[in-house]
Design a protein that fits this description.
- By secondary structure, the chain is α/β, with parallel strands linked by helices.
- It has 2 domains: 110 residues, 3-Layer(aba) Sandwich (Rossmann fold), CATH 3.40.50; 152 residues, Rossmann fold, CATH 3.40.50.
- Helices cover 34% and strands 22% of the residues.
- Strands 3-4-2-1-5-6-7 form a 7-stranded mixed β-sheet, with helices on both faces. It has a 7-stranded mixed β-sheet with strand order 9-8-11-10-12-13-14, with helices on both faces.
- Helix 3 packs parallel to helix 4, helix 5 packs across helix 9 and helix 6 packs parallel to helix 7.
- It is globular.
- One of its GO terms (biological process) is tricarboxylic acid cycle.
- It catalyses: succinate + ATP + CoA = succinyl-CoA + ADP + phosphate; GTP + succinate + CoA = succinyl-CoA + GDP + phosphate.
- Keywords: Ligase, Nucleotide-binding, Tricarboxylic acid cycle.
- Pathway: Carbohydrate metabolism; tricarboxylic acid cycle; succinate from succinyl-CoA (ligase route): step 1/1.
Length: 290
Amino acid sequence: MSVLVNKNSNIIVQGFTGSEGTFHAGQMIEYGTNVVGGVTPGKGGQTHLDKPVFNTVQEAVEKVAADTSIIFVPPAFAADAIMEAAEAGIKVIICITEGIPVGDMVKVKAYIETKDCTLVGPNCPGVITPGEAKVGIMPGFIFKKGNVGIVSKSGTLTYEAADQVVKQGYGITTAIGIGGDPIIGTTTKEAVELLMNDDDTECIVMIGEIGGQLEAEAAKWVKESGNKKPVVGFIAGQTAPKGRTMGHAGAIVGGEDDTAQAKMEILRANGVHVVDSPAKIGVKVAEVLG
């Protein structure tokens, strides 16, 4: 089992022929991901990386039964790309683009709520189900198949957690990088819920950071749902000064509950196994599974 993407996903790349799209699509194909084509307006009918290029997402849905899209479109046009995918009936939309204006994402968020689809991102590393599909920019060789799910706001810490889990003799069901922007599609709680309901996932690693309430909402949901599976948590930004954006646009301490310390206390109070350093994630996973 897996969540969001697997070997049967029919994946297209929006922004297929650009430099980012070309590079990462090539890596995805090399990994064994089922990339069925791509979209670049005005270049329909061409072939790129031995895959067909379409002018629109609708055309890709009709001709190659696309159901999943990954977006490498510049920030000014990325919101339209997300909505085009949703309008065409794509079920899983993964947006890698960083720097999409918040005003654009407000419109996107409202729009996709009217559609039957899941948006991951923007400003995220993507989603990987090891051995089946890499739909994103993560280094695939780090990830091995197993029974631990990962949900993370940070791309780098996603890879770090996966590496530690693998070195402890375990592996990953699916890793979801949700992105660090103020407005994102899939929240921490929604991603944790997907993994909690996945039969093969026996433990969940939840990596958050300062700013916002996503981790607190997820932790409260975990407790309310009965703590069915152990959740290991880490919050980045413990030394961040108040009021300063740190790396991600959404990582800014607005109130007392937004600090790393406050979030860690909330996680602990809701039964999450919190580690105070990312270096301890793997050891803690082995402990709770052992």
